Amino acid sequence: MLRYLARRLGQALLVVAGVVVLTFAIMRLVPGDPAVAFAGPKATPEQLAEARARFGLDDPLPVQLLNYARDLVTGDWGTSLRTRQPVRDDLYLAFPASLELVGAALLVAIALGIPLGVLAARHKRRLPDFGVRLGSMLAVSVPVFWLALALQTVFAGNLGWFPIAGEYDTSLDTTSPLTLWTNITIVDALITGNWPIFTSTLEHLVLPALVVAAYPTGVIAQMTRAALIEESGQDHARLERALGFGETSILTRFALRPALGPVLSLIALVFAYAIVNGFLVEAVFNWPGLGRYAAESIRSLDTPGIAGVTLLVALVYVLANLVVDILQGFVDPRTRSR
């Protein structure tokens, strides 16, 4: 097990090194001069020279790359050209809201996708299977911005069942101020017992979480179905049928655990995809997360901000895959020898 963990950790570090090089390239390939963006279009040559010296833009590219990697390791992700604040601090404020949204969406996707996949596998080539496959195709195919606008119009605008936008009712900041611990609003409200903000956040979270959960639910259901059908054709499944176990018991008691390996790998993939996909949802629902920060950084050609968002999403993806690899080692010991 230790060799398996060491091998996976080494692979993760190689990917992180590649991501660092990629984000450095993004900072250098984005059109515009960072010195001009920082000092302003009316800056004097002396001010531009000072800005270029501050960001090390006059150094050779290999030296700039080494300095960039060193700064990242020490926690210096650069200074935003737009906010004039450290990028790390900006991301610390923006990322928890995105994590809150994507985390809720993945919980919904897992809670719905795996049972739907089991249902489809249990009734293969029958009406429930057809319904799950059709619903999965629709969930994967519908444009996320269209689904967001449709749910917002129907359930928030017309029916008034849910708030139309925002993370929670901001008037509660006066009547029920929230004490921050993790910067994740719903978690902090739960920890501190701030039930007005907790309830308001839940109400605001329903629609955007359902939109973000649509794609992961579809692909998880399809993958669970395919993995279970494959496992139900293995020798152990034939033995279990000979011993008198029913199809439902075979699928849920014996086939589901080995089938979770590819499903866990898929969850890591859709987690990173959901973060990026959530950018559009955040724009529609005015959710204060990475999407808003990334859009404003792109609009203002804030290269450190753009690179910071890219690096953070990539690191989250690598970490999610590492966690899934470790979980796979416990769920299915056969993966340790691969």
TrEMBL record:
UniProt cross-references to Pfam families, sorted A to Z: BPD_transp_1, BPD_transp_1_N
Gene3D superfamilies: MetI-like
Annotated ranges, domain ABC transmembrane type-1: 95-328
Domain of life of the source: Bacteria
Regions that span the bilayer: 12-30, 101-122, 134-155, 205-228, 263-285, 305-331
Keywords: Cell membrane, Membrane, Transmembrane, Transmembrane helix, Transport
Molecular function terms from GO: dipeptide transmembrane transporter activity
GO terms for cellular component: plasma membrane
Protein localization: Cell membrane
Bilayer topology: Multi-pass membrane protein
SUPFAM superfamilies the record matches: MetI-like
Entry's family note: Belongs to the binding-protein-dependent transport system permease family.
Protein name: Peptide/nickel transport system permease protein
Source species of the chain: Nonomuraea rubra
Lineage, broadest ranks: Bacteria, Bacillati, Actinomycetota, Actinomycetes, Streptosporangiales
